[in-house]
Amino acid sequence: MANSLTTNILVDGSKNAVINVSGYLDSSNLAYQSLILPNNLFGIDSSGAAKAAALAIRKIQYNVQDVNIVILSWDGTTPVYVDTYTGRGKYEAENYGLFVPPASLTTSNGLNGGIGISTLGWTTGAILTFSLTLELAKLGAF
Questions:
Q1: pTM given for the model
Q2: Between the CA of residue 69 and those of 17, 32, 131, 138, what are the distances in Å?
Q3: Which end of the chain has fewer CB within 10 Å, C or N?
């Protein structure tokens, strides 16, 4: 078999989205890749036409097999670190003001408003899994 990453959009409204991410690693760590982009979601106006400029993370529920590490980043030419997850838990970022792309980093710095993912911890012969549920807020601008 080969590594796999599955992303399912569970909720996609004009202000918020919820996605579920599942990963299966049996041959290597997951190399960095885009996870979700704002222009792949319903727009932020009532018609759905005006797309969000960026996504902010409101809540994360994670179940990451021990020794595996999942890294989320603001997606772009040069990804910018958001946070690292291992083990099981829930983080309610909205209680602390959300995880929002830094104002100093805009599309001119290569960010595209999306979220990317990668992993560390895989070793030869290991089969590692993880799942994340991300509650996202859609932002009109960085």
A1: 0.91
A2: 24, 13, 11, 26
A3: N
Alpha helices in 26-117 (DSSP H): none
- Which residues have a Cβ under 8 Å from the Cβ of 116 and sit 6 or more positions away? 32, 33, 34, 35, 72, 73, 74, 75, 76, 79
Do 118 and 98 form a contact (C-beta atoms < 8 A)? no
Walking along the chain (142 residues) 10 residues at a time, the average pLDDT comes out as 93 95 96 94 85 92 94 91 95 85 68 93 94 94 58
Residue of 17, 142, 20 lying closest to 74 (CA atoms): 142
Q: How far apart are CA 67 and CA 142, in angstroms?
A: 34
